[in-house]
Specification:
Elements lengths: L1 H5 L6 E5 L2 E10 L4 H4 L14 E9 L8 H15 L4 E4 L2 H4 L9 H6 L3 E3 L2 E5 L2
Parallel strand pairs: 3-4
Antiparallel strand pairs: 1-2, 2-3, 4-6, 5-6
């Protein structure tokens, strides 16, 4: 992770409260996720020329769960990706992607922020 940060590769956003980190979400250009680029379960749907960013993981400290921190992180991820030139942002919530890991967020959160379900992914056009 430090190598990515040192290289200037986007890796995600932090949520903090009073200077204390309370949550994190990954958000980066899709091609920076090497395993995702090779995935048959979560294949790329946009053309390689379309700047596509992916939100892949959320973490919220136990004490801060159920306080809409993940929603705020997703809102921030959308804004950050748009500011970096993304045309599309995608996510793979655990309840619709057939993935058992709950750290991918829930589809209700993506839907509430204007994402649309396409296959196994949720997608929002932002650019």
């Amino acid at each position: 992770m430090l190598k990515l940060v040192d290289a200037g590769t986007p890796i995600g956003l932090l949520a903090s409260h009073g200077g204390e980190p309370v949550g994190w979400c990954s958000v980066a250009p899709r091609e920076t996720y090497a395993r995702l680029e090779r995935s048959r379960t979560m294949p790329r749907v946009t053309s390689p020329e379309t700047p596509t960013w992916t939100v892949l993981c959320f973490f919220v400290a136990r004490h801060w769960r159920h306080q809409h921190i993940a929603n705020a992180l997703l809102e921030g991820a959308i804004a950050y990706a748009r500011d970096q030139g993304a045309a599309v942002i995608e996510g793979y919530p655990f309840d619709t992607a057939g993935i058992t890991a709950t750290h991918r967020g829930h589809s209700d959160m993506f839907k509430a922020l204007g994402f649309e379900f396409e296959g196994k992914r949720w997608c929002k056009r932002i650019g």
